[in-house]
Please model this.
Amino acid sequence: MKSIDIVYALPDTATTVTFKTDDDLTVEEVITQCGILEKCPEIDLTSLAVGIWNRTCKLNQEVKDGDRIEIYRPLIADPKEARRRRAEKAKDEGRANKITGGRSGRRQS
Model:
């Protein structure tokens, strides 16, 4: 018998379901049969990414005993844009060189 954990995490809560089966199932089949969609109706598999043990995968990938399926929610902020804003702030505050973007020559005490 295969035991598979399915996890969907929000900023303040996480929902985990353990699903047991003897069948050879895909990620999508496990998610639809395990009951997590009833507990978290906001999950939309057509728009959210999924993964097994922190590695993204396709919905048609077969699962193995001990797998942990993770349903990823959309990012709140674009990581590239957030880094760009932090770099601009550092330049404005004098903590970064305005030309090269590297650390400023003066040290903060």
In short: Residues 76-109 form one domain.
